[in-house]
Amino acid sequence: MSRLTLDSLVRSGRSPSLDRGALRTGVVHLGAGAFFRAHTAVYTEDAMLATGDTSWGISAVTGRSARVWEQMAPQDGLFTVTERGPGSGASRVVSAVTETLAGPRDPLAVVERVAAPGTRVVTLTVTEKGYRADPLTGRLDVRDPAVRADLEGAPPLTAVGRIARGLQLRMLRDAGPVSVVSCDNLSGNGDRLGSLVADFADALPGAEGERLRAWTAESVSFPDTMVDRMVPATTAEDLDLVEGALGLRDEAAVIAEPFRQWVVEDRFAAARPPWERAGALLTGDVRPWEEAKLRVLNAGHSLLAYLGLALGHRTIAACAADPVAAEAAHRLVHEEALPSLRLPDGLDGPAYAESVLARFANPALGHTTAKVAADGSQKIGPRLLPTVRAVLDRGDEPRWSALAVAAWMHHVAAAGPRVEDPLAATLAGLLPDRRRAADVVPRLMEAGIFPGELVADGLFTGLVAHWYGVIDSADTLALGKEIAL
Ligand code: CS2
């Protein structure tokens, strides 16, 4: 079976939806994983299709492993997106990527692209851990060896290093203003990225850092965004199914739920793709959208994943079909998350929460608990702790957010050094020999994820220890009873 490429597509009687001869590169994307392909790339392609403006082709930079480059580069950047679940449309071939750069192998080319005069927007999906920030302070972790190497002038490999070095070259070349758009699940992702780049500049020696900082403040904007689409890891079986339907082999195929949403702060330093023509909402205030999504969807997702793993479920849909886990997620989002939010104008909170819970239940998606459970040390903070604080502040018990934290701790204790997390070694090092609640909970409270005031809050830590004990007893009946109380 031939591989998906421009030639093979045309030979099979189809053509790319965009006129590839007219396509120019206007966007550099860092982190060309599955989420980018199913979300950001689709919006950008749709914006070009809706307007006929083909100046927003994407230079796609792959993350740490060479695998994504091997998938995309031999296919002329083409890939398919296949929707699964109620209302799904036909598979589509996305043709918005003009080149694929191997991030780890070609760091200087990445810096060049960020500095190219034609680049007016840099977008990023590098996941929470890709920012290399201290989970507690949100500041750049300058002790991280990769960050240090970038600061010392090595060809940059971290996302913040690539951006800062690209901006520096842009400044030297006078290549004009640019906007850098974080599309990851962090609260205040734009401002956060802006301050990480400023931290990088501050850590450079003397005048070099000052110049970069001043130029960035003047010529670069970091809009906030809320991104939403559930995108599982593509499996070997998915690849075969796509091949059967397409008649070509697509190694870069992605699977996604039909739903997608993008809310973008309209604060751009230079021109931008007309994403509103592709269904994105461009607005002055993204925060309420971002917080609602993080505290309802992402928090609910994490709770289902960690509790689901303790209950032996492989997929999120299986968790959503389990009355005990589903009830816990329902109560977390309705009783704790929603009341803690300042909802965006026009968003009906309970209806939003129900729509999210229904999306979790999509049995066709195959989103695994293991994938959502990964990198918990980076996810607990933005997803759950603001809700814990808000519930405590109003004088209530954060029962359900404490349950999610306890389920995460249980997962960490069960996985030990095999836990998939950038802080795996730290977490494993903290684990005591005895794995009872009284031993584990106080130790993991010291992982550098929980702020001092929560570690010192007896109500919160007591609830976490209580739930940890219930989960650890492996008594599903008792867990179900507690959750129904
Ligand atoms: C998930 C998210 O893996 C995870 O942690 O919660 O990737 C989630 O699927 C997306 O944010 C949905 O928009």
Automatic annotation (TrEMBL):
Domain annotation Mannitol dehydrogenase C-terminal: ranges: 285-429
Domain of life, per lineage: Bacteria
Catalytic activity: D-mannitol 1-phosphate + NAD(+) = beta-D-fructose 6-phosphate + NADH + H(+)
Domain Mannitol dehydrogenase N-terminal: 26-276
Keywords: Oxidoreductase
Pfam families, sorted: Mannitol_dh (PF01232), Mannitol_dh_C (PF08125)
InterPro entries: 6-PGluconate_DH-like_C_sf (IPR008927), 6PGD_dom2 (IPR013328), Mannitol_DH (IPR000669), Mannitol_DH/Oxidoreductase (IPR050988), Mannitol_DH_C (IPR013118), Mannitol_DH_N (IPR013131), NAD(P)-bd_dom_sf (IPR036291)
Protein name: Mannitol dehydrogenase family protein
Species for this entry: Streptomonospora nanhaiensis
